[in-house]
């Protein structure tokens, strides 16, 4: 799932004994603009590459409506989290769940974060494989950059190319024991998203002037999709807007925690605009040929050398971005797994325990590589994550905290809204899972 967005920055959850209090002198007096930047970066990741495929299934008008609706539900659930954080004593998501549901709630958060991060890392590998080696859908073969440049050989295959990437690019990066420059990755993420929108829009306008754009569906075409297929797109957007794990770390950096709600609403507005722009222009360019990972579509031959170069620049730049973000996601995944498996408070920090650090790093890298090669379908993972762990982190857990109401602050309208959120989340996710298990997903 669009992981989605899949989000490029997911901070590790702190164990309860390491939670920072509001009086902690290490807190940073961050600005609203900085919070907007971090929240937006969290939402704009690899997930944007599946938005055009959702437009192909839904049509433009329903697609826009679903984007806005999921954004509104996201705003509601984040407001739930902020209110209960202010009323409680916890400074982390896991701690907040622990206050309402005890150790079981805290454990559930950690497990969901681990599964989500692992899924996102697999998605990053899949996107890299699509860019380098292409993909195949509905009998149509899309070539990757390596195959366009050098031809189809065993050493341009997905398995071998990703192995080289894993050993010579990913491994040196994930072996770094400190991640101190997340702000630079955030800047690159936002910049590349805007560049992608700019390039897609310019290519779409150029195609319009040449009469080469594709016909667009305003509403779904039920001769090609079923009503149930429409529900398989919702997890893509749930993944894209799933930044709830980062609410507490970003809130902790604000000079006034009350500004977090404003920052979230501004970020959601920005991301709705970017998602719809990418979906519209990507769908306008490729129409019914739009792939689940739209980067794959940029293998199409252009009439000019400049056009072909532009296609390659789009794919390579975003692939490099994902390669640079990969160690950040791996860092938080590794930290959460270490906290779950090695809960002894007297243990040395992970970065100082070389055997523990190296073994976890190698196992995680090998696992993500093997799964990405075995299941090279980005749509599958966006739907899986958006229908399971991310829907829990984004919707079910915040709504359940409101219904539990350990602090006695919920109003009747809050209880009703929480029930609506749960019904929406369980209903859409259940239908999406059932549709995919029966093999009728529109983009499989």
UniProtKB/TrEMBL annotation:
<feature type="transmembrane region" description="Helical">
    <location>
        <begin position="318"/>
        <end position="337"/>
    </location>
</feature>
<dbReference type="GO" id="GO:0031090">
    <property type="term" value="C:organelle membrane"/>
</dbReference>
<feature type="transmembrane region" description="Helical">
    <location>
        <begin position="262"/>
        <end position="286"/>
    </location>
</feature>
<feature type="transmembrane region" description="Helical">
    <location>
        <begin position="57"/>
        <end position="82"/>
    </location>
</feature>
<dbReference type="Pfam" id="PF01490">
    <property type="entry name" value="Aa_trans"/>
</dbReference>
<dbReference type="GO" id="GO:0015179">
    <property type="term" value="F:L-amino acid transmembrane transporter activity"/>
</dbReference>
<keyword id="KW-1133">Transmembrane helix</keyword>
<feature type="transmembrane region" description="Helical">
    <location>
        <begin position="152"/>
        <end position="176"/>
    </location>
</feature>
<keyword id="KW-0029">Amino-acid transport</keyword>
<keyword id="KW-0813">Transport</keyword>
<feature type="domain" description="Amino acid transporter transmembrane">
    <location>
        <begin position="29"/>
        <end position="428"/>
    </location>
</feature>
<feature type="transmembrane region" description="Helical">
    <location>
        <begin position="188"/>
        <end position="210"/>
    </location>
</feature>
<feature type="transmembrane region" description="Helical">
    <location>
        <begin position="230"/>
        <end position="250"/>
    </location>
</feature>
<keyword id="KW-0812">Transmembrane</keyword>
<dbReference type="InterPro" id="IPR013057">
    <property type="entry name" value="AA_transpt_TM"/>
</dbReference>
<feature type="transmembrane region" description="Helical">
    <location>
        <begin position="103"/>
        <end position="127"/>
    </location>
</feature>
<protein>
    <submittedName>
        <fullName>Amino acid transporter AVT6C</fullName>
    </submittedName>
</protein>
<feature type="transmembrane region" description="Helical">
    <location>
        <begin position="381"/>
        <end position="403"/>
    </location>
</feature>
<keyword id="KW-0472">Membrane</keyword>
<feature type="transmembrane region" description="Helical">
    <location>
        <begin position="357"/>
        <end position="375"/>
    </location>
</feature>
<feature type="transmembrane region" description="Helical">
    <location>
        <begin position="415"/>
        <end position="434"/>
    </location>
</feature>
